[in-house]
Amino acid sequence: MGFFDSEIVQQEAKELFEDYQALIKLGNSYGKFDREGKKLFIEQMEAMMDRYRIFMKRFELSEDFMAQMTVEQLKTQLGQFGITPQQMFDQMNFTLERMKAELEKQP
User: Fold this and answer.
1) In the chain, where are the structural domains located?
2) How far apart are CA 92 and CA 84, in angstroms?
3) What stretches of the chain show up as alpha helix (H) in DSSP?
4) Which of 43, 56, 59, 83 could form a disulfide linkage to 87, CB 3.0–4.6 angstroms apart?
5) CA separation (Å) from 67 to 57, 73, 85?
6) What value does the mean pLDDT take over residues 55-70?
7) Closest CA to 59 of 49, 72, 47, 68
8) ∠ at Cα 93 (99, 46), nearest 5°?
9) Name one Pfam family in it (predicted).
């Protein structure tokens, strides 16, 4: 059975995509959130990034051809912007850390 034939993989990919889309949409109102709302949003984004990192690691560790192709496509797409997947994760973590630091400065 191929990597993408797994119902678990398909369900997790669907949930991850839907949750990410919902968070991005919610993030458009980030500036209007109170302190606790911002804190909760950051925590949810961190959890989302952990889930995404684990999901991508499964692709990397899989011997399935399509999973390996997916990893290579991501590398190629990110490479067009001059970054690697690790740099993408690092940048997202940096952004979330900066958001937390700004939040700590607020009364």
Assistant:
1) 3-105
2) 12
3) 7-27, 35-61, 65-79, 85-105
4) 83
5) 10, 10, 15
6) 91
7) 68
8) 80
9) DUF1825
**CA–CA distance, 72 with 75 (Å, rounded to integer):** 5
Does residue 42 surpass a pLDDT of 90?
A: yes
Say if CB 41 and CB 35 are below 8 A apart: no
Provide the residue count of the chain.
107
Of 92, 96, 91, 106, the C-alpha closest to 41 is: 96
pTM for the model? 0.83
The 10 Å Cβ neighbour count of residue 45 is 21
Geometric angle at alpha carbon 87, from 65 and 81, rounded to 5°: 80
- Burial classification of residue 20, based on how many CB atoms lie within 10 Å of its CB (0-12 exposed, 13-18 middle, 19 or more buried): middle
